[in-house]
Amino acid sequence: xxAAILEALHQPLSTRDTxxxxxxxxxxxxxxxxxxxxxxxxxxxxxxxxNIKTPIILGSDGAGVVTEVGEGVGEYWLxxxxxxxxxxxxxxxxxxxxxxxxxxxxxxxGTFAEYIRVDARYLLHKPPHLSxxxxxxxxxxxxxxxxxxxTRGNFQPGCRVLVTGAGGGVALFAIQFAVAAxxxxxxxxxxxxxxxxxxNLGVKGGVNYKEPTWYRDLLVKAHAPKSGYFNIxxxxxGGSGFARLIDVAAPxxxxxxxxxxxxxxxxxVPAKVFFKQLNIHGTTMGTEAEFEAMIRFVEEKKLTPVxxxxxxxxxxxxxxxxxxxxxxxxxxxLKITD
Length: 338
Ligand SMILES: NC(=O)c1ccc[n+]([C@@H]2O[C@H](COP(=O)([O-])OP(=O)(O)OC[C@H]3O[C@@H](n4cnc5c(N)ncnc54)[C@H](OP(=O)(O)O)[C@@H]3O)[C@@H](O)[C@H]2O)c1
Description:
The chain has helices at 39-45, 132-136, 139-152, 169-180, 192-200, 214-221, 242-248, 270-275, 288-300, 316-325, and strands at residues 2-6, 14-17, 27-36, 56-57, 61-69, 81-84, 87-88, 102-103, 115-119, 123-125, 160-163, 184-189, 205-208, 230-235, 249-257, 279-282, 307-312, 331-335. The chain is an alpha/beta fold. The strands form four sheets. Strands 3, 5, 6, 9, 10, 17 and 18 form a seven-stranded mixed β-sheet that branches. Strands 13-12-11-14-15-16 form a six-stranded parallel β-sheet, sandwiched between helices. The chain has a three-stranded antiparallel β-sheet with strand order 2-1-4, with no helix packed on it. The radius of gyration is 20 Å and the shape is globular. The two termini are 14 Å apart. Residues 38-40, 43, 140-141, 144, 164-171, 188-191, 194, 209, 236-237, 241, 258-262, 284-285, 323, 326 line the site of NADP nicotinamide-adenine-dinucleotide phosphate.
């Protein structure tokens, strides 16, 4: 089979023939129709991720058709159109994952391949209203956005939500989920063009985080009190901008941090955090129950993920470079088989 393989750190992905996997007990083989990229794939290639092993087939997200079932798996799954939950072995505690926790695409081979071997418990039916390319974008970013907004953010109808970095994969799902759930949603982005696109998705407005006064401008635009406005803030950037999220948070708000794209958090004023009684929550991907709830919500609301660009599997390296450029609005997809 063909797969896009990271042979060694800092090397471009090479798409070449490799052995097709065989299903073990409890597993199935999925013929992937589409896969999608996450920033994790870029971090791994750059060596900025723990416990990297090479060679590895990258990719956490995929959708396709079950072609083989292993021992102990009912034939029910054969020929079914599925998406794969990449959050493996979370364990029994919904608050925190256990020692066995892994993410598909490292250490196990991932979805940038014609076939993948996966435990049948991580299969879900593809939402029928989505194409394979659209469905392939959901797993990692959708689950991360869901847990951040619904579980860690304790979303309630009527919440005012701020999502930073509107162009990102996780950010866009957080926006779509919050809008569909009836929130008043605002965004930041490094691009005015992306803010306009977010407004087309139902966002009320946004500001460009490259403007030094963005946090003040945001409160003015939202006609908000100086004491802060947003009940839930979803952030994947961290860095020096994080301190400003504390300024725009409403008293008692939840700030849910799922990434550190811009590095270490600096200049947080402790008094602002404690006087405002803020809740700062770390959050990641989530449980199997959260994955199912996220997919149910997408089906119920007939949400369509935002696709940025579709590349062929042969061009997986170009797709990674596109993600690294930060120009995308929405998910970057690899088309794998027809
Ligand atoms: N903890 C987890 O389980 C988990 C899961 C998924 C992702 N992550 C992490 O979350 C981050 C985003 O992942 P992704 O896959 O969504 O990446 P992505 O699609 O490549 O998006 C990158 C994001 O960074 C934003 N950004 C860049 N500079 C920024 C700044 N100064 N302030 C605010 N936002 C800024 C971009 O916003 P604009 O394009 O709008 O400017 C965009 O939202 C990555 O660091 C990733 O490793 C963690």
